[in-house]
Amino acid sequence: MREAFRAPLKAAAAAAFTVGTILFLVNPPSLSGAEDLLTLLGGATALVLLTAWGTVALMGEGPDEREFERIVRRSEALARMPPPDAPPSEFDVLLVDAIDRLPREVQELLEAAPVVVSHRGREHRAYGHYFGDTVARENYPDRIVIYQDTLERDFGHDPELLGAQVERTLRHEVAHHLGWGERGVRELGL
């Protein structure tokens, strides 16, 4: 519940400071009467609330924690289950091959950071995501999510190109897991 109010409260605080500063500089209060003071406070409060609401509306929604937790719980439950009777999909095979081409040391690191396939890439406008706080810290569980829907949408017309992009996306997210920021990962050519 606390998390739901964090963004609007931050926005309201920033808006209050900005609006208060602007009002003070444009029209310094004379404070000659209680009526003038109440009018100023009422107007400032309304402006702060309107600005906070607009800021939150423009920021949009961040990553949905419930959805991420649902994916984590599902992936952990699936990992405990016996292998399915159905053979893996072509995309699963591409991803397994990409993991097999990683150096042995990196593959060992992925034992603690599961690679999960998701079909929500369109929502996140991404091919993959790394969730966690790198191998150097153990404060949060690490997860690499590869988005099958966006990869197949953009590269599915050519199986070789799709395989190459799956591997590139995996390596990109693994680089984040190893501690590289977005700029550093791009400089690596990923």
Structure commentary:
By secondary structure, the chain is mainly α. The protein folds into two domains: 58 residues, no CATH class; 123 residues, Zincin-like. The chain has nine helices and three strands. A three-stranded mixed beta sheet has the order 1-3-2, with helices on both faces.
Label this structure with key terms.
single chain, 190 residues, mainly alpha, Zincin-like, 2 domains, three-stranded mixed beta sheet, 3 strands, 7% strand
Short description:
With 190 residues, the protein is mainly alpha-helical. The chain is 64% helix and 7% strand. The model has no long low-confidence stretch (mean pLDDT 81).
N/C terminus separation: 38 Å
Strand order of the largest sheet: 1-3-2
Overall structural domain count: 2
Overall morphology: elongated
Percent range for β-strand residues: 5-15%
**Number of strand segments:** 3
Structural class of the secondary elements?
mainly alpha
CATH architecture of the largest domain: 2-Layer Sandwich
**CATH topology tier name of the largest domain:** Zincin-like
Query: Number of helix segments?
Result: 9
CATH class assignment of the largest domain: Alpha Beta
Global mean pLDDT:
81
Radius of gyration: 24 Å
Flag low-confidence runs: none
Query: So what's the oligomer here?
Result: single chain
Q: How are helices and strands ordered from N to C?
A: HHHHHEHEEHHH
Please bin the fraction of helical residues.
55-70%
> Which sheet architecture does the biggest sheet show?
3 strands, mixed
